[in-house]
Amino acid sequence: MSGLVVIGASYAGVQACLTARDSGYAERITIVADEHSLPYQRPPLSKGFLLGLESKESLILRDGAFFEKKAIDLVLGTRALEIDKRSRKVLLGGGSELAFDKVVIATGSHARQLPIQGADLDGVCYLRSLHDAVDLKARLHDASEIVVIGGGFIGLEVAASATKLGKKVTVLESASRLLERAVSPLVSEFLLDTHVQHGADVLLEETAASIEGRHGRVAAVLCGNNRRIPADLVLIGVGGLPNDQLAKSVGLKCTNGIVVDDHGRTSDSNIFAAGDCTSHFNIFAQEWLRLESVQNAQDQAKAAGLAIAGDTGPYESVPRFWSDQYDAKLQIVGISRNFDTQAVRGSIEDGKFSVFYYRQKKLIAVDSVNRAGDQMAARRLIAGGISPSPEEVMDLSFDFKSLLKAADSASVAAQKSEPLERPV
Ligand code: FAD
Question: From the alpha carbon of 12, which atom of ligand 1 is closest?
Answer without folding.
Answer: 51
